[in-house]
Amino acid sequence: MTLSYTRLLQFYKQFGKFYDRQFGDFSARTGLSMREIHVLLFLANNPGYDTARDISELRGLSKSQVSQAVELLAAEGFLLRTPDEADRRVVHLSITPAGLPLARDCQAIQTACGQRLLAGLSEKEKQQFALLLETVLDNGSQLAEE
Q1: Integer Cα distance of 126 and 1 in angstroms
Q2: CB 69 within 8 A of CB 93
Q3: Contact (Cβ atoms closer than 8 angstroms) between residue 71 and residue 97
């Protein structure tokens, strides 16, 4: 099988546009930018990864983007910053009770995006796809480290 890299890159761009558009009403209602939405979603979806560095490295956002988003979310009372007890240079981020409903709304939008993407696949096909995707993503991570 020949993998079409052009199609893969095209998918990445097309789905990214679709995904961002799905948050349009939420963004207009809350005043949150996509950058802030990405930070909220990352923290909600990745327990144990709770620093700006984690977000930057694993989500692929620049340090300055993450810093700006964290600053705005904290100022709005949606995020709490807690210095690490062992290393004061490390700051842990957590979603506050005021931010939790926003994070849940974002997760619902994200879930709906995934459901639309996988529409037409049986449950078995979805499970197979998830396993195959994990393998491809793991391979990609290893290649990035080479």
Answers
A1: 21
A2: no
A3: no
